[in-house]
Write a structure and sequence with these properties.
alpha/beta; Rossmann fold; Argininosuccinate synthetase, chain A, domain 2; 12 helices; 14 strands; 39% helix
Length: 412
């Protein structure tokens, strides 16, 4: 491995460190290649794995400054909930579970860099994926002059075999097991919103993954034979209680993951378009998020004006692309978020859902103070003059005027 030239002058770098194979190799590679001090940062965002082993591994390689932070509440409160106020879906399906975690990690990388006096940050994202863009756009937006080291764009360790050989050579402990005849069957990324699976055997978009791949949802076929009802309480567009019990944002999402997973809710298998230009097949489990999206649209349906809803729906795909492509801290996302948040002031009330074998069905929605649904007007029975049906004739004729004119000119 060639040494970096002296002009780099990297004295201290903050590494986003999970303790897995890739970042364990990166830690040692940074020490050897840049001959700099490394600070490790491990974020607990609900990935469901113990983070303390990362501390032990970092200590083994002489790391003096080790940061392990529980960011679950911040993740859901400041990133997941704002995104769900927009009903964001990328390409009509993906709930952006990986995408929305990256700006949070970038924020803390920058904060730790400032706190420790580091002049660089580093991450383990590859040069083919979206995460490199998300990490780096976020970091540059918050620390414009930060130096970013992306080892996958610099080194020659471009296979699992080479990574393992490097780990063996340098005594790096890894919990990585290869299957017979090949490497890992797929890569995983987990947080409190979802688990993603991609790469390996999933690179064939015509391959159906084994049911054993899924970690937090049962298959719909094995889900309970009886439906379960769930009631969510909303305040200003955010869920504040589940089944009448007040909860923090992270508690809400954890509870909905548990309920949704039990009923086989939230599995997704898609081919998506990465920002760097290629198509990628990904499988996702997002049980809580799937419930949240369905319920949020339901409470908005009775509390928001028709044209406000239409405007939000028009803007949503663009908002989702901003998050997917890494522009969480961009001025356009912040501007759009202020509009979205303003729309949520009246999104208050309750939604009842029925979960059954992979499906989420809205069975009730109510808002005592903010509902725009007027049963006196909507009724098919005698409305006692609340709505004059004769008014509809002029309404229809005016809206048909351009169609009638065109038809008279023989236009189809």
């Amino acid at each position: 491995m060639k040494k970096k030239s002296a002009e780099k002058r990297i004295k201290k770098v903050v590494l986003a460190y999970s303790g897995g194979l890739d970042t364990s190799v990166i830690l040692k590679w940074l020490q050897d290649t840049y001959q700099c001090e490394v600070v490790t940062f491990t974020a607990d965002i609900g990935q469901g794995e113990e983070v303390e082993p990362a501390r032990r591994k970092a200590k083994k390689f002489g790391i003096k400054q080790i940061f392990i932070e529980d960011l679950r509440e911040e993740f859901v409160r400041d990133f997941v909930f704002p995104m769900f106020r927009a009903n964001a879906l990328y390409e009509g399906e993906y709930l952006l579970g990986t995408s929305i975690a990256r700006p949070l990690i970038a924020k803390h990388l920058v904060e730790i860099a400032r706190k420790t006096g580091a002049d660089a940050i580093s991450h383990g994202a590859t040069g083919k994926g979206n995460d490199q863009v998300r990490f780096e756009l976020g970091a540059y937006a918050l620390m414009p002059d930060v130096k970013i080291i992306a080892p996958w764009r610099e080194w020659d360790l471009l296979s699992r075999d080479k990574l393992l050989a490097y780990a063996d050579k340098h005594g790096i402990p890894v919990d990585f097991k290869k299957r017979k005849g090949g490497g890992a069957p797929y890569s995983m990324d987990a947080n409190l919103l979802h688990i993603s699976y991609e790469g390996g055997i999933l690179e064939d978009p015509d391959f159906e993954p084994e049911d054993s791949m899924w970690r937090i949802t049962v298959s719909p076929e094995k889900a309970p034979g009886r439906p379960e009802h769930v009631e969510l309480e909303y305040r200003k567009g955010d869920i504040v209680a589940v089944n009448g019990k007040k909860m923090t944002p992270a508690q809400v999402l954890a509870k909905l993951n548990q309920i949704g997973g039990k009923h086989g809710v939230g599995r997704l298998d898609i081919v998506e378009n990465r920002y760097v230009g290629m198509k990628s097949r990904g499988c996702y489990e997002t049980p809580g998020g799937t419930i949240m999206l369905k319920a949020h649209r339901a409470i908005e349906s009775i509390t928001l004006d028709r044209e406000v809803l239409a405007l939000k729906d028009d803007l949503m795909p663009r908002y989702a692309r901003m998050i997917y492509n890494g522009y969480w801290y961009s001025p356009e996302r912040l501007l759009l978020q202020s509009l979205i948040d303003n729309s949520q002031q009246t999104v208050n009330g309750t939604v009842r859902l029925k979960l059954y074998k992979g499906t989420v069905l809205v069975v009730g929605r109510a808002s005592k103070s903010d509902s725009l649904f007027d049963s006196r007007i909507a009724t098919f029975d005698d409305d006692k003059g609340a709505y004059n049906q004769a008014d509809a004739a002029g309404f229809i004729r005016l809206n048909a005027l351009r169609l009638r004119i065109g038809a008279k000119r023989g236009r189809k």
